[in-house]
Amino acid sequence: MSILQNQRSLFVKAIVASGIMLVMLACMMLLAERASAHGYVESPASRGYLCKLGTNTDCGAVVYEPQSLETSKGFPAAGLTDGKFGSANGIFPKLDEQSSTRWSKVNVTSGQMTFTWKFTANHATTDFRYFITKPTWNPNSPLTRDQFGLVPFCTHDMDGAQPPFTLSHTCDIPQRTGYHVILAVWDVDNTANAFYNTIDVQFGPSTGGDTIAPSAPSGVSASNIGTTSATVSWSASSDNVGVTGYRVYNGSTQIGSTTGALSLNLTGLTSNTTYNITVKAVDAAGNVSAASNTATFKTLTVTTPDTTAPTAPSGLHIMGTPTSSSMMLMWNASTDNVGVTGYRIYNGSALVATVSGTTTDYTVTGLSAGTTYSFSVRAIDAAGNQSAASTISGTTAPSDGGGTAPAWAPGVAYTVGILVTYNGATYECRQSHTSLTGWEPSNVPALWLLK
């Protein structure tokens, strides 16, 4: 009897250990899938970004990826669901908790204010729009359309252009007093998706509000100067609350930023060119310091043949849901010792198209419905050097008369947009993964969307 009990105990422990490993694997897969997506409001600091910095607490998984607050676009007519503005329709549900004291607030004043977006994948963009709660809103009620003015107080048009990895623009904030919420909307061009950030702001006097800017960084210097790169370093600033990051400028143009590191490797510079670098410190309330001293340097001249290939494009993924005849591919920019001049897109071994070095997306058309394809992207430079390939697989949607979706099964590699049936319901794959027993669509809403 004792031997039998020991065997049962060991069996139970093995099952528990296996379950823990599966959960850890799922989390790692989800974080890896999201690693390239996509952007957030850095200043004035958004609710999700303040969670990442630790200023907001009890936030859930958004601390790892404030750049992933993405759902369908079309706000205010469509897009967000009432009560789920903070979480972008429930991706990070903790962000939907709403009260007058739940979230840290950034001090602002009515009038001109600069909004800065930080991107991890700088997609072609239709526009940026900003909405604000009504003067009579209730801060202790969920965020809904009734709480907001539904005409944006500011729109920054992009007309399909691709922004840099850091983008700032100035808006006029309407007259308000006390605590309010700003909803920032980034409409991605030529896809069905947008990114939504809530920003908790305090107008006028506030209890314990931070209005003191950090001290200016000092000792800015440049080293490791190459033909298209250099390393910039500086000494730390001080602040009455705490410095959250640094912004690096060439003249008056911001060309980079850090979240606390005291150096930055500048890449993509132009050879034989003079740069005048300054650094400014910023805190969680959006207060920006005066500029540091200027570090002036000149990049080296290219004098030898270029035999170095660009790096492989990273973060290759399928943006949005594939149609029955097309998929939109997106990737992060490659780097090169001289400069990337283009990207080659392949379907299997067949070259589909070549796009410019500033383009990081391409829509492949003319595909067959309900078919799985393997795509790859390679970067090229002016000397004809070609990078290693980044690859991804995806399946087009069934045709309009495509019949019933296949039943879900374990051990199958599913990609974004694939439809399956389970227990009489139809689900759409939200994150590419290989299915396991226990990951049935009804059990893991992070992987499957009920249609």
Q: Provide the succession of SSEs.
A: HEHEEEEEEEEEEEEEEEEEEEEEEEEEEE
The share of residues in extended strands comes to 35-45%
Q: What's the CATH first level of the largest domain?
A: Mainly Beta
Q: What's the average pLDDT? A: 86
- Give me the secondary-structure category: mainly beta
CATH-defined fold name of the largest domain? Coagulation Factor XIII, Chain A, domain 1
**CATH superfamily grouping of the largest domain:** chitin-binding protein cbp21
Compile the SSE list and pairings.
Blueprint: H1 2-34, E1 39-43, H2 47-53, E2 70-72, E3 106-108, E4 111-119, E5 125-132, E6 154-157, E7 166-173, E8 178-188, E9 193-203, E10 218-223, E11 230-235, E12 243-250, E13 253-258, E14 263-266, E15 274-283, E16 295-298, E17 314-319, E18 327-332, E19 340-347, E20 350-356, E21 361-364, E22 372-381, E23 390-395, E24 413-414, E25 419-422, E26 425-429, E27 433-434, E28 448-450
Walk me through the structure.
By secondary structure, this protein is mainly β. The chain folds into 4 domains: 36-203, chitin-binding protein cbp21 (Coagulation Factor XIII, Chain A, domain 1, Distorted Sandwich); 218-298, Sandwich (Immunoglobulin-like); 314-395, Immunoglobulins (Immunoglobulin-like); 413-450, no CATH class. The protein has 2 helices and 28 strands. It has helices at 2-34, 47-53; strands spanning 39-43, 70-72, 106-108, 111-119, 125-132, 154-157, 166-173, 178-188, 193-203, 218-223, 230-235, 243-250, 253-258, 263-266, 274-283, 295-298, 314-319, 327-332, 340-347, 350-356, 361-364, 372-381, 390-395, 413-414, 419-422, 425-429, 433-434, 448-450. Strands 2, 3, 5, 6, 8 and 9 form a 6-stranded mixed beta sheet that branches. A 4-stranded antiparallel beta sheet has the order 13-12-15-16, with no helix packed on it. A 4-stranded antiparallel beta sheet has the order 20-19-22-23, with no helix packed on it. The chain is flat and about 65 Å long. The model is unreliable at 1-7 and 20-36 (pLDDT under 50).
